[in-house]
From TrEMBL:
The keyword Hydrolase applies. It comes from Alteriqipengyuania halimionae. The lineage of its organism: Bacteria, Pseudomonadati, Pseudomonadota, Alphaproteobacteria, Sphingomonadales. Residues 272-434 form the Helicase ATP-binding domain. PANTHER family: ATP-DEPENDENT DNA HELICASE HOMOLOG RECG, CHLOROPLASTIC (PTHR47964). SUPFAM superfamilies: Nucleic acid-binding proteins (SSF50249), P-loop containing nucleoside triphosphate hydrolases (SSF52540). Pfam families: DEAD, Helicase_C, RecG_dom3_C, RecG_wedge. GO terms for biological process: DNA repair. Residues 467-612 form the Helicase C-terminal domain. This is Probable DNA 3'-5' helicase RecG. One of its GO terms (molecular function) is DNA helicase activity. The gene is recG. The keyword ATP-binding applies. It comes from the Bacteria. Keywords: ATP-binding, DNA damage, DNA repair, DNA-binding, Helicase, Hydrolase, Nucleotide-binding.
Length: 686
């Protein structure tokens, strides 16, 4: 049972003031379902503004607070351009306050000519005029803005504004209780860390590194502890030893010989499966390294041993793709493979459920639908989880309960986690690595191109398509507003569609799953030639004929993410090209990232470099795939704090493995807080 003290912050967000049905969707998009999620919705960054007496004191690009008196309102001719309010500072300098679109209504209301106003925003230049585009705040009195000089900037979703999120956060923080300390006292002292509740408050108030560290540490500690509980529990469990007779595997008629690395991984898995202790193994291999066939061999062993296997994919698109690949590869073997997703309803679903129950289905591929309560297996002995990082271990355990005995688990990931971090995410697993790509793969020709040459790039795409091949076009994610990103993608899509017509499809996060699937399928089948997407291009999507990747504003992406995206091409034997479009204002780090992308295709190297580059100054940088397991801790914090968190957890387990002492109790609360409470349930199960 969850400790009572957590109840106030485990209430649903809609119990907060001002949360009606309208906010349900945006909050859900941000993953904020409980009040504690809101409290943990830490600012992406802070705007620090300087109060200046006049414009001479400010520099371009600076965030300022300044008193200005509007002198004149200028609507653009025809009403199509921006709406400008000219305003004067204390010594007569003029600055334009610029508004686009419907925001001009606000301007008319807030900025009456002749009346002094306090303005907060970023000073820019437009031609020879100073301007502030969409001021962040306009106030009649200076003191209204005094607490806005350091202001948190939160990640938003359509329908939410910064002030709205800030007000929800305030309410959530008021509800946060004081909790007894779970961190080893010496550790907290060394870091100079505030107590949990204080840390939460501080982290929202300003760039308070110690508070952020403490909260990140909590998450890492909770995870380490939960994984140790799993491991301890797994040691006590019994699985079914699986020994195959090769009957099925011998019938596999692969069009290629396995690589040495694949063979080695299969041998390692085979060794684990033969044991009674349930396997917990991670198969790590870069994009395109050939993990699927390794998974298939493992599943065939399970079937040879008279049991069933399940493959869990993170999305419907991937589930479908895996299903089709496996079905094609396994055709000569003569086994029954089924696809089960949340969309299957009625008769079709019934017959699959029947087949799983009576054992006539050997392999089921699907999304989380395959471990709903209504799904029962005759004899499930192996679970393969693709893109493991998308799932919590908790879900894995739910699946594990499906078998008569605990199934063996093989988790696969293409995320090249730096070696230093493997422990963090997969602390409870053995690791097999496919550290070699299939032969004959050509290096992807990676080039950095200035955005100024966009039309040449479009010409290149056109020639590419005329040559019979396909291409991806990735639009950047700017994060502050997903709406803006999608607007940008839609705009790009529209301009490309004007040129390429029906050959282009668009995929982004706000499409309905059916629309997304339909677009993906048109592209996968080769009917559409160009796929325009925000970063939602699913990890793992495999279209070998797509050999050109264009990434706009590539400098905005982290290295690991660029690597994942680039991995969508170079999957066939044709030469592939990746064009990284860069903006003009390139930071040193941005420059270095793009250079590294050109230099290497080694995912592990890129992951390590990514970590190094992000070590300094980019603490609050864009979150990337592979980090989803942690919501609070970023990559740099994981690398820096994990070893201590791991040791701390181990020490606690040694002293108080049942988590019954004072700190043990506090640690249980922590596990609930981070929804790692399946760890506690394992404890109770003894
Ligand atoms: P990933 O590890 O990214 O999941 P896949 O399993 O999708 O990689 O394999 C990528 C491609 O490489 C597939 O088209 C697959 O058929 C092919 N492939 C896998 N193993 C080999 C091999 N040993 N030799 C040649 N091609 C291979
Ligand atoms: Mg794959």
């Amino acid at each position: 049972m969850r400790p009572d003290i957590l109840n106030p912050i485990f209430a649903e967000v809609n119990t907060l003031d001002g949360v009606g049905p309208k906010l349900a969707k945006p909050l859900e998009r941000l993953g904020l379902s409980k009040i504690k999620d809101v409290a943990y919705h830490l600012p992406d960054r802070f705007v620090e503004r300087r109060a200046v007496a006049n414009l001479d004191e400010a520099s371009e690009g600076e965030q300022i607070v300044i008193a200005l008196t509007p002198t004149e309102h200028r609507a653009s001719r025809g009403g199509r351009g921006p709406y400008r309010v000219l305003a004067q500072d204390a010594i007569g300098n003029i600055c334009a306050l610029t508004y686009f679109g419907r925001a001009s209504y606000t301007a008319k209301k807030l900025l009456p000519p002749g009346e002094l106003r306090w303005i907060a925003g970023r000073l820019d230049r437009y031609g020879d005029m100073l301007q502030i585009v969409h001021p962040d705040h306009v106030a009649e009195k200076a003191d209204t803005l005094s607490d806005k000089q350091v202001e948190p900037i939160y990640r938003l979703a359509e329908g939410l504004t910064q002030p709205r999120v800030a007000s929800l956060v305030d309410q959530a923080l008021d509800l946060a209780p004081e909790l007894s300390e779970w961190i080893e006292p010496g550790q907290a002292d060394r870091g100079g860390w505030p107590a949990w509740r204080d840390a939460l408050h501080l982290a929202h108030r300003g760039p308070h590194e110690k508070a952020r560290d403490r909260l990140a540490y909590d998450e890492l500690f909770a995870n380490a502890l939960a994984l140790m509980l799993v491991r301890a529990d797994n040691r006590k469990r019994r699985g079914t030893p699986l020994r195959g007779d090769r009957a099925l595997r011998d019938r596999l008629n692969l069009p290629f010989p396995l690589t040495g690395a694949q063979t080695r991984c299969i041998t390692e898995i085979e060794g684990d499966l033969a044991q009674e202790a349930p396997m917990l193994r991670l198969l790590q291999g870069d994009v395109g390294s050939g993990k699927t066939v390794v998974a298939l061999e493992a599943m065939l062993i399970a079937i040879e041993a008279g049991t069933q296997a399940a493959l869990l994919a993170p999305t419907e698109i991937l589930a479908r793709q895996h299903y089709e690949t496996l079905r094609d590869m396994a055709r000569p073997v003569g086994i029954e493979i089924a696809l089960l997703t949340g969309r299957d309803k009625g008769k079709a679903r019934e017959s699959i459920l029947m087949g799983l129950l009576d054992g006539s289905i050997d392999i089921v591929v699907g999304t989380h639908a395959i471990f709903q309560d209504s799904v029962a297996y005759r004899n499930l002995a192996l679970v393969v989880i693709d893109e493991q990082h998308r799932f919590g271990v908790g879900q894995r355990l739910m699946l594990a309960r499906k078998g008569k005995t605990t199934p063996h688990t093989l988790a696969m990931t293409a995320t090249p986690i730096p070696r230093t971090l493997t422990l963090a995410q997969y602390g409870e697993m053995e690791v097999s690595q496919i550290d070699e790509l299939p032969p004959g793969r050509q290096a992807i020709d990676t080039r950095v191109v200035s955005t100024g040459r966009l039309s040449e790039v479009a010409d290149g795409v056109s020639r590419h398509i005329e040559g019979g091949q396909q291409a991806y076009w990735v639009c950047p994610i700017v994060r502050e507003s997903e709406t803006d990103d999608i607007a940008a993608a839609e705009q790009r899509f529209a301009s490309l569609k004007a040129r390429f017509g029906d050959d282009v499809v668009l995929v982004h996060g706000q499409l309905r799953p059916e629309e997304k699937d339909a677009a993906m399928e048109r592209f996968a089948s080769g009917e559409a030639k160009l796929l325009v997407a925000t970063t939602v291009i699913e990890v793992g999507v495999d279209v070998p004929n797509a050999t050109l990747m264009v990434i706009e504003q590539a400098e905005r992406f982290g290295l690991a993410q660029l690597h994942q995206l680039r991995g969508r091409v170079g999957r066939g034997s044709e030469k592939s090209v990746c064009l990284l479009l860069r903006g003009d204002a390139l930071s040193e780090t941005g420059r270095e990232r793009l250079a590294l992308m050109r230099e290497t295709q080694d995912g592990f190297r890129l992951a390590e470099e990514d970590l190094r580059l992000r070590g300094g100054g980019e603490l609050l940088g864009t979150r990337q795939s592979g980090e989803e397991a942690f919501r609070i801790a970023d990559l740099e914090q994981i690398a820096r704090l994990l070893p201590a968190a791991h040791d701390d957890a181990r020490l606690l387990m040694e002293r108080d493995g049942g988590l019954t002492g004072t700190r043990g109790e506090a640690a249980r609360t922590l596990l609930y807080l981070f929804e790692r409470d399946w760890g506690v349930q394992l404890l109770r199960g003894g």
